[in-house]
Amino acid sequence: MKPCQHCQAVIDEYILDKQLEPLRGLTVDDFNICADCTTIVSDSCVGCSGAVYVPRGDTATPDYCPACRADHIERTGQDPGWNLDTAST
Ligand SMILES: [Zn+2]
Ligand SMILES: [Zn+2]
Asked: 51: exposed, middle or buried (C-beta count within 10 Å: 0-12, 13-18, 19+)?
């Protein structure tokens, strides 16, 4: 078992996996943080209207879920980050 990146607590994979369920099959292995340090916001992804994952401590709610961010990187070779970039162009 790996400790949480944020608080160093041992990750309870069962609890975190349940919490991550809306995120298209992502697992604790993709995060390395515990359930206490994770917030899931449902229906917030601009790509798929699915749930997004918010690391605790981040003030901004991501626009992309991890799956859509990964999709975007795969298709364009560019990392869009967690949020829609409305500032440029
Ligand atoms: Zn933690
Ligand atoms: Zn998405």
From this structure: buried
Per-residue pLDDT of 58-89, as tens digits, reads: 667 888 888 888 888 899 998 888 788 665 45
Closest ligand to residue 37's CA: 1
Residue 8, in any domain of the structure:
no
Domain membership of residue 53 as a residue range: 13-76
Q: Is 47 within the bounds of a domain?
A: yes
Ligand at shortest distance from the CA of 63: 2
Q: Which residues surround ligand 1, an ion (CB under 5 A)?
A: 4, 6-7, 34, 36-37
Amino acid residing at 32: N
How many domains does the structure of the chain reveal?
1
> Is the pTM for the entire model greater than 0.70?
no
From ligand 2's centre to the CA of 5, what distance in Å? 24
